[in-house]
Design brief:
- The chain has 222 residues and is an all-alpha fold.
- Among the domains are: 37 residues, no CATH class; 116 residues, Orthogonal Bundle (Cytochrome Bc1 Complex, Chain D, domain 2).
- It has eight helices and no strands.
- Helix 4 crosses helix 8.
- It is elongated, with a radius of gyration of 32 Å.
């Protein structure tokens, strides 16, 4: 009985001792540190190399790991990358550089046109109007909640001459009172809407040309 009591007591003492915080609790050599230490950082968080020169007690944090996407790559399902980033406040370098970027979508099929027009009306028509005349529900001839008239996409030479890439920049990052639509529209949808706007501008010019020619002929006859 005494032996059993002695053995039980010894076991309890060893258990308590092994759980104490005395001694060096930091391992000096770790065979697989990425399994010993968690690398669960915030998604897309960036950590530069300076972060990894930490104290001896945090040696496991010296593992270099960066879960940000590789520069120059796009995620699966993302099409038609736009190479220019948003300008810093007060800078317009990339905004003007975007003029040189061409729309990868030249034409729209009848089926595409129906869907793109729907997307335009949902996302753009509220400001720019269903007729692209800048008279959407938010302006409503000056009676709506917006005091300033939105851009007239058809009928204003400034926006008719605006290159596709610059339009894309404005839709992607926002410009003046218009906010970014990057969260509402994919890159492909943005390019499609711009192709739709340009098609409407061409239609308006084509229909205006005969009328102008007829008016000029009437003046000559007088």
């Amino acid at each position: 009985m005494k032996k059993l009591y002695f053995i039980s007591s010894l076991f309890v003492v060893l258990a308590i001792t092994s759980c104490s915080d005395n001694g060096d609790r930091n391992p000096h050599n770790i065979y697989m540190p990425d399994m010993a230490y968690s690398r669960a950082y915030e998604t897309y968080a960036y950590r530069d190399s300076a972060t990894f020169t930490q104290s001896e007690s945090e040696r496991g944090q010296k593992i270099f790991y960066n879960n940000a996407p590789v520069v120059g790559t796009i995620s699966r399902g993302e099409e038609m990358p736009f190479p220019l980033a948003k300008d810093a406040n007060g800078d317009t370098t990339n905004y003007y550089a975007s003029k040189s970027i061409k729309n990868p979508i030249d034409t729209l099929t009848e089926k595409q046109l129906v869907e793109v027009e729907r997307q335009y009306l949902i996302n753009c028509g509220i400001c720019h109007g269903s007729k692209l005349d800048g008279n959407g529900p938010l302006y409503k001839g000056g009676e709506g909640p917006f005091a300033a008239k939105p851009a007239t996409l058809v009928g204003d030479a400034r926006y008719e001459a605006m290159p596709d890439g610059q339009m894309f920049y404005s839709v992607a990052y926002g410009k003046n009172l218009m906010g970014s639509y990057a969260s509402q529209l994919s890159r492909k949808q943005r390019w499609e809407i711009i192709a739709y706007i340009k098609a409407k501008q061409k239609e308006a010019k084509a229909s205006a040309a005969p009328a102008a020619s007829a008016a000029a002929t009437a003046v000559v006859k007088k």
